[in-house]
Amino acid sequence: MEKQEAYSELVNSNRNHIDPNDMATDEDAVERKKILNLIFANDYKGLKDMKIVSKNLNWLEKHSKTDLDDKITPLAQASFLGRGRITELLLENPLIDINMTTEDHEYTPLSASCIAGNFEIVKILSENGADTNHMNSMGYTPLLYCFSRMTETSNVYENKNICLKIAEILLHFGADINYYHHGKTLLMSFCGMSMILEQVQLEMNLEVIRFLIENGADKTLKSKTNGMTAYELSNNHCASQQVKDLLNSAKQVHFHQRAKNGKGHREAGTIILDDTKVKVGCCSMFYFCRGN
């Protein structure tokens, strides 16, 4: 009798840890494709009619029309495509994993929305406890992805404004502005650029440096690759003296609550923003913050 009870407990325990993707049937696969197609089509009513709020949505599936990753989750897809109402609907599901990542590059829904420049969705996800410091398989965090908007050559000022608004949201909810990627912080990368910048690019570069400092970027930190500070790295900048003057004069004016355990927090409140949305391809990377 004791052995039978022990076996039953083991079976029940295994059931609780089974990956839903490993148990998918042909019928499940058809339903998953339908859900992704409805999200892609922005069919809010169709999803409501499927009673999406009561379904298991923590799975990965391919969707050729959504150019995000090899396999995606419904929430990551909605966040990437800018489906605001659908994102809110999916978050009504009590079982949904808000930080579940895609397959291959490990994008969370928050990272996906930052890549696409959907700052209204960034706000929604952050307010609902999304991890603002999640590091994916390439070592990028949502804050780094939001600055990928600086790579766009069209709508330059609009992309810059969206980038900074998204950054404000992430910092408000605990993002680490001094996170190191490839041995450098964002401030080091923007201060240490050696490429020649056109006037518009230079103005944006300097504005971002000021933004970072005013929001808590530490000017005293040293690069893990060569031991230099942002000030020392600025010797390589095409406008070295302007960068140095900015580093000397700019001060922190915004003090953000740091997230515990590297995660976003729910208690920070809300941010009111307009709902402008501009999409950027997920392969965009840093033009303005590539260092040496």
From TrEMBL:
Q: Do you know which PROSITE patterns this protein is assigned to?
A: ANK_REP_REGION, ANK_REPEAT
Q: Which UniProt keywords apply?
A: ANK repeat, Repeat
> Which residue ranges contain the repeat ANK?
105-137
What this protein is called in its record is Uncharacterized protein
